[in-house]
């Protein structure tokens, strides 16, 4: 077994590998760029080596720097994590030449299956059903359009060396193919150092189901069940689960056996994932193979009890698999949510900055479910523009799918993040969505259910009652504290706070009466309902934990002027508690009107201006490209919402802009 390994990655996956290596008694070496000097993975590792400037192409993607870091520290093996160099055969070969073990598949398997174009050719030769498409390298937008016309729309334009949703576009017309080809090729070059793309038929109403395989260097390969990853946005997975609510045992076996046959055909000898596009009728087609550890691997670990990172290390050290196919059992259900630094109310645009608050839910067993949080950040850390915007992966495991979803909802409610925008409200709304809970999924789920984007829903029904109760309880606690302030002027009568209150959730008024006899807080609502509230929450804590009518809930709390901002169950609201007279007066106050920015193009996220596509005085039509802004390895095309004339341009190519910076103005 190795005595020291280097992790050629950053963020949560580097931290994840370090945890397993530490448990196995193996020393660890981290590598870091200028932007990651104070990162969590650097702190966790036994040693750390600086590898260059913040851009990945100058640090994490430079093979020579990683090899040299191994030489400096005496690392015997390298775990690549996912992304970066994890699927580069040249990296594995360079390590082998230096006498260093690659903790992953052999280079020939990477070449055969890691390249999206070559893997489809190989699968066709092996008589594996594949999605119709053109498997050659496409040289120009015009060629891409001709191929797409022959295949039939819609088509998927995909980077050959791609992954993580980078370098992927769906096109429904020739015009979209031409633009998508350019964007996919540019993203592929900047993210993977390989600008090749291919085109294939896009299956309508598909589901994304993948099989986890693992093989050793002695010819043994098994499959560890499946994961469903159909909840995606811009081809990037958002929520994953294991097993899939679509599959029955017979389909699971067929998919698993096909995945194993494919892996054996290339002598696959590590953890890998065979991805399929599945129809609602359980038909399936080979999509691609990822010759690395997947982001979503924790859900498989939770239902199988197998540490995939440990098995990868043992296999790389030459050990045989410690289990056979007959030993694999799926226990319960696991759900994973990817917590991203992005604003779901603004088209999921990336958000960067400092994590002023970062308080994940407690890990471990609670209420019959297990909570796990894989992360690479700490409170006070910085979310950089240079890398993927993932903050954490929140995983819950329970005996049933419904219980795992309920546990995920509770854990999301208890996840406090401030200082940047994040997608937790959206994830919470997904958990509460009836279609998700019923398992009626497709890769178009988000586009279909949120066609106009995500707007923070207002609390209604039971959720509104819970938030009103929490707001009233917080206000009551503050009033109790005020009574104990020393040095106050004495009153002829004891101070008595009014029990008749009105909770304002935004503009909605909820009258109630507060009673705290014998230390128990009971709220009586105007409809006759009474609710008991109990909590040990104290001012300053970002999450209110307690019970409302005996039900354990968590609510995120942030102080605002004369009240608190509350978030719970995918909703958010500003809550203020008034006396009846105060509520009457507050209702007369005018609402603040937002400034008119309709004649300006604002930068929707902190990013780098890649191109300005118009000139001053130019007339533009709705839908025309105005500018391209790059953030977190994604190129975002900003288009005109309506016809107009460009009056003044404030930004130029190469500028780094803050969110809401004015790019140009219209006449």
From TrEMBL:
Keywords: ATP-binding, Biotin, Ligase, Lipid degradation, Lipid metabolism, Magnesium, Manganese, Metal-binding, Nucleotide-binding. This is propionyl-CoA carboxylase. SMART domains: Biotin_carb_C. It holds the Pfam family CPSase_L_D2. The keyword Nucleotide-binding applies. Residues 120-317 form the ATP-grasp domain. Residues 1-451 form the Biotin carboxylation domain. It comes from Chelatococcus sambhunathii. It catalyses: propanoyl-CoA + hydrogencarbonate + ATP = (S)-methylmalonyl-CoA + ADP + phosphate + H(+). The keyword Transport does not apply. It comes from the Bacteria. Pathway: Metabolic intermediate metabolism; propanoyl-CoA degradation; succinyl-CoA from propanoyl-CoA: step 1/3. Its EC number is 6.4.1.3. Its cofactor is biotin. Residues 592-667 form the Lipoyl-binding domain.
């Amino acid at each position: 077994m190795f005595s020291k390994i280097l992790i050629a990655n950053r963020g949560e996956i580097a931290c994840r590998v370090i945890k397993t290596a530490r448990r196995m008694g193996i020393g660890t070496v981290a590598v870091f760029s200028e932007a990651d000097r104070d990162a969590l993975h650097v702190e966790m590792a036994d040693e750390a080596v600086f590898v260059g400037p913040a851009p990945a192409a100058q640090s994490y993607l430079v093979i020579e720097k990683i090899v040299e870091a191994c030489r400096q520290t005496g690392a015997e093996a390298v775990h690549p994590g996912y992304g970066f160099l994890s699927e580069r055969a040249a990296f594995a070969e360079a390590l082998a030449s230096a006498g260093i073990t690659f903790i992953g598949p052999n280079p020939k398997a990477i070449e055969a299956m890691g390249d999206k174009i070559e893997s489809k050719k190989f699968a066709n030769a092996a008589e594996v059903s594949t999605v119709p498409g053109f498997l050659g390298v496409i040289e120009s937008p015009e060629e891409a359009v001709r191929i797409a016309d022959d295949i039939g729309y819609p088509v998927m334009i995909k980077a050959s060396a791609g992954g993580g949703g980078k370098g992927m576009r769906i096109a429904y017309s020739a015009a979209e193919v031409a633009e998508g080809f350019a964007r996919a090729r540019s993203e592929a070059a900047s993210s993977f150092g390989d600008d090749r793309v291919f085109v294939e038929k896009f299956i309508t109403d598909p589901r994304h189901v993948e099989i986890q395989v693992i093989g050793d260097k002695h010819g043994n390969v098994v499959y560890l069940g499946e994961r469903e990853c159909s909840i995606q946005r811009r081809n990037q997975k958002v929520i994953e689960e294991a097993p899939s609510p679509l599959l029955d045992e017979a389909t699971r076996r067929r998919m698993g056996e096909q995945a194993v046959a494919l892996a054996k055909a290339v002598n696959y000898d590590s953890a890998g994932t065979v991805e399929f596009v599945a129809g609602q009728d359980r038909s399936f087609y080979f999509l691609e193979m990822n010759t690395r550890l997947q982001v979503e691997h924790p859900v498989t670990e939770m239902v199988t009890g197998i540490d995939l990172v440990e098995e990868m290390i043992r296999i790389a050290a030459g050990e045989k698999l410690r289990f056979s196919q007959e030993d694999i059992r799926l226990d319960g259900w696991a759900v994973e949510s990817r917590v991203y630094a992005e604003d779901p109310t603004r088209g999921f645009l990336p958000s960067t900055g400092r994590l002023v608050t970062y308080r994940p839910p407690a890990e471990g067993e609670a209420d019959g479910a297990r909570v796990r949080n894989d992360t690479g950040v700490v409170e006070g850390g910085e979310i950089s523009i240079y890398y993927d915007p993932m903050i954490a992966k929140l995983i819950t495991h329970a005996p049933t799918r419904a219980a795992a979803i309920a546990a995920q909802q509770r854990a999301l409610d208890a996840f406090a993040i401030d200082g940047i925008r994040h997608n937790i409200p959206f994830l919470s709304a997904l958990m509460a969505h009836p279609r998700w809970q019923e398992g009626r999924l497709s890769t178009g789920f988000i586009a279909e259910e949120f066609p106009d984007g995500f707007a923070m829903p207002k609390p209604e029904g039971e959720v509104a009652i819970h938030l009103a109760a929490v707001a009233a309880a917080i206000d009551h606690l503050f009033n109790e504290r005020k009574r104990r302030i020393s040095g106050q002027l004495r009153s002829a009568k004891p101070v008595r706070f009014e029990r008749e209150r009105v909770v304002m959730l935004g503009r909605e008024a909820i009258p109630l009466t507060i009673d705290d006899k014998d230390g128990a807080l009971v709220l009586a609502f105007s409809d006759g309902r009474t609710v008991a509230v109990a909590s040990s929450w104290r001012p300053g804590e970002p999450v209110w934990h307690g019970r409302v009518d005996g039900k354990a809930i968590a609510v995120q709390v942030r102080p605002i002027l004369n009240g608190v901002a509350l978030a719970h169950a995918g909703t958010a609201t500003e809550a203020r508690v008034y006396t009846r007279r105060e509520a009457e007066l507050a209702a007369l106050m005018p609402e603040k009107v937002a400034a008119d920015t309709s004649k300006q193009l604002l930068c929707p996220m902190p990013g780098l201006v890649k191109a300005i596509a118009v000139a001053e005085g130019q007339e533009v039509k709705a839908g025309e490209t105005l500018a391209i802004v790059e953030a977190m390895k994604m190129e975002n095309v900003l288009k005109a919402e309506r016809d107009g004339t460009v009056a003044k341009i404030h930004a130029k190519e190469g500028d780094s802009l803050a969110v809401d910076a004015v790019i140009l103005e219209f006449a």
